Please model this.
Amino acid sequence: MKKALTAALALVLLLPWTSAAKGPDNAARALERAVSGIQAELEAMDADLKLAADKLATTGLDGKKAKKALGQVWKGNPHVVDVSSINAEGRLVAIVPASFNGFAGKYISGQEQFQRLLSTGKPVLSNVFMSVEGVWAVDLEQPVAAPGGGLLGSASILAQPHAMVRQVLAPLTRETGLEFMVLERTGLVLYDADPSEVGKNTFSDPMFKDYPELIEVAKKICAQDSGRGVYEFRAAEGRGKVRKSIAWDSAGLHGTLWRVCVMETLE
Model:
């Protein structure tokens, strides 16, 4: 599954592009490729985790076979921080890689996404939060069925969105000359070509307070699955201000959506 989806991502990124021409049509094509690439990565990660969860339903949440199943997920997803099994009480049981073994036994029972998985029995993807491992990340979880029915626990991937998104968007930026950004619906910047903006909230961080048009556009981005807008923001390296056009669409899993944006400086 991972190989097939990786091949699909490669095809998306290799689609023909005429870099000399810019404008709304080409920005729209670039946005479509960006969303498709990010969605392919998310679905590949989710499919790998689902396979591991199915194995854990047979092997149990701990032991060599369980850790082997978790390790296969970790090796196949370079942007992942760790992969773990969690019991129905919210206790981390097994974790890979071994450098995170010290967090086994920690509880995540109070975390929103785990509570959602328990109540629905369905897979979940969290917003960015501070994990018990001390990393700002998102948590993707797949339920693990108990042999006699019910829920044994979950298989979990802790991942940093900017690392995953970068492998899709950095090549597109080099190819097209366009700027890309990914926003959480809370206004948190998950990815931007300017690393100083990553991890900042558009609505509350001082970096953005002097740009009311940007804040208004960000409100629309968070509220609407797709759209277009224009705003003013600082120029590169702080050289005055520029006006930019922005278009956005959505990628995501299990009800959690990221807004994928493409920006172009207006002449």
